[in-house]
Design a protein that fits this description.
alpha/beta; about 40% helix; binds pyridoxal-5'-phosphate; Aspartate Aminotransferase, domain 1; 14 strands; seven-stranded mixed β-sheet; three-stranded antiparallel β-sheet; Aspartate Aminotransferase, domain 2
Length: about 400
């Protein structure tokens, strides 16, 4: 039997303007070409320390336990939930989008009783809802909530919820996969106990590492568990000895070092730009996109005043096949945007402007491409109005 030789891998360079992955910064790709070295090599251990420091800066925390889980954002979610939750615990999970639902699934797998707090997909959770749920549930181990809901485009305010949560003696666990370095996020000032993210959203790296930070109070809870963590891979009691062990580091699993180089470089870029400036950039480009979409007669899906700058959700005009529209953007313009998931499938598009991708060039290019495709679908449009409104916004802001 003869086997056809495999051709050289030659993938297209897409503009990834969806819910993630987003485009990888060229400097991150370059860092990833560094040689793989041993996980106990002093050079590698230094590199881990060097990555933990800027990670604390990005999270705005002094937490000792600030590291990265080997795996995607979902692995970060598992690390957070599996370490905190034990069989028999009561937890409150905020469910106003796809990822809140996933958190509830994981908490149940850990044997917890989940008290859901729900809101329509596209609206925030109100602090009073948490107060009510806390009263109903009695003793609660943790409140779990998504900061930037990538499925709906909502940026959830957390300060008041944190206050209420701690008053009830519970821990606050936050998903910041899409918000880290794209939105204001203050772990220590806001009293967040456990928070995780991922490399492929606003950190401009490929998927594969999940930054995680855990407060001292939450680590005490992890250390005084009655039952071992149901997952060996993300058990912070063992894993913590590798990340926090100084010279006494112990083997737990082989970290994907190449991904750590990527995270380090992504963080270096964040610090060079400055976190404040980066947040302002994400907001400015999202607002310019919004100005353009509005001028094209399109309506945004997420509740006004609570929109997530790295990810904008927009309703698909009546009579337009959302799949075909996105296919047109990909085939004709090389641009990927996301479709709606769950309850929002077919109804919205999700436009990501994350990290390296949050630029005026991407905003204007997308508006032009979208206009071209919408015209093909027979949508009545004022030609050029979207791009013009966006340019005007940039002029004035
Ligand atoms: C992308 C995302 C995740 C999941 O991350 P993966 O890297 O796909 O595993 C979790 N939460 C939110 C809010 C996300 O946007």
């Amino acid at each position: 039997m003869t086997t056809e030789p495999l051709g050289e891998l030659n993938l297209p360079h897409r503009q990834l303007l969806g819910p993630g992955p987003s485009n990888v910064h060229p400097r991150v790709y370059r860092a990833m070409m560094q040689p793989v070295i041993g996980y106990l090599d002093p050079v590698f251990i230094q590199l881990m320390d060097d990555t933990q420091r800027p990670l604390r800066t990005a999270f705005r925390t002094e937490n000792d336990m600030t590291m990265a889980i080997s795996g995607t954002g979902t692995a970060g979610m598992e690390a957070a939930i599996y370490n905190i939750t034990e069989p028999g615990d009561n937890v409150i999970v905020c469910m106003n989008g796809f990822f809140g639902t996933r958190m509830a699934d994981m908490a149940k797998r850990c044997g917890a009783t989940v008290f859901p707090v729900e809101a329509e997909w596209g609206r925030i959770i109100e602090p009073e809802q948490i107060s009510k749920a806390l009263k109903k549930a009695g003793r609660v181990k943790a409140v779990m909530i998504v900061h930037g809901e990538t499925s709906t485009g909502i940026l959830q305010p957390l300060e008041e919820i944190s206050r209420i949560t701690h008053e009830a003696g519970a821990l606050l666990l936050v998903d910041a996969v899409t918000s880290l370095t794209g939105c204001e996020l203050r772990i220590d000032d806001w009293g967040i106990d456990v928070c995780y993210s991922a490399t492929q959203k606003c950190l401009s790296g490929p998927p594969g590492m999940a930054p995680l930070t855990v407060s001292e109070a939450a680590m005490k809870v992890v250390q005084s568990r009655k039952e071992p963590v149901a997952s060996f891979y993300v058990d912070l009691n063992i894993l913590g000895r590798y990340w926090g062990g100084g010279t006494t580091r112990m083997y737990h699993h082989t970290p994907p070092m190449t991904m750590l180089y990527a995270l380090r470089e992504g963080l270096r870029i964040v610090l060079e730009e400055g976190i404040e400036a980066r947040i302002v950039r994400h907001k400015r480009n999202a607002d310019a996109l919004t100005a353009g979409l509005n001028a094209m007669g399109m309506t945004l899906h997420a509740q006004e005043g609570y929109r997530l700058p790295p990810l904008t959700t927009v309703s698909v005009p009546d009579g337009v096949d959302e799949r075909k529209l996105r296919q047109g953007l990909l085939d004709e313009h090389n641009i990927e945007v996301g479709g709606g998931i769950g309850d929002l499938a077919g109804k919205i598009m999700r436009i990501g402007l994350m990290g390296y991708n949050s630029t005026p060039q991407n905003v204007l290019g997308l508006l032009f491409a979208l206009e071209t495709e919408l015209l093909k679908h027979g949508v009545g449009l004022d030609k050029g109005a979207g791009v013009a409104a966006s340019v005007r916004f940039y002029d004035e802001n």
